[in-house]
Amino acid sequence: MIIKTLQEDITTLRVDAIVNAANESLLGGGGVDGAIHRAAGADLLKECKTLGGCPTGNAKWTQSYNLPCKGIIHTVGPIWHGGYKNEENLLESCYTSSLKLANAHNCRTLAFPAISTGVYGFPKDRAAEIAVRAISAFSYERSTLEIIYLVAFDEQTLNLYKNEINKLN
Ligand code: APR
Q1: What is the pTM of this model?
Q2: Class for domain 2-168, per CATH?
Q3: Residue 117: band (very low, low, confident or very high) from pLDDT cuts 50, 70, 90
Q4: How far, in Å, is the centroid of ligand 1 from the Cα of 114?
């Protein structure tokens, strides 16, 4: 399994699945959630309404509708409250839950946005470290996953991902 990073609009990526940084209602919002719902179309919200929400740290799968990817994994990151409310473990759980779900759907390629680092205020440097640590610690023995993309939407996040990935080598 290879981890790659790029700066891109995640809705444009032709990967097997993209991860959405959603909220517990799964009924859409701003940021990457808003971008994904806008690009996927109204049928995505219709499917999300059947899911009954998603607890923080967990993940749920939907179809991708008008997006070029094959599926969407909606995960709910923690809101940053200073680091004393289990935020780091919950963020790690977003990555692990999404990886498990990607495996369950036989994904070969998967793209993550920088979960929780926008509206939810998680410090970007600590989030990048958690993302790379969770992805590299996951067991890929019986996994179909071959390439995992960490998708930055700004240069600071891209550089943080590059630094964390370089530490693995
Ligand atoms: N492609 C890739 N990354 C994006 C895109 C995009 N099109 N749009 C935004 N991002 C980046 C942001 O720059 C940030 O680095 O996604 C990261 C996560 O930011 P948010 O989308 O604000 O998500 P988050 O911090 O997890 O907050 C989730 O915001 O949009 C609402 O409904 C959502 O309530 C939930 C909350």
Answers
A1: 0.98
A2: alpha beta
A3: very high
A4: 7
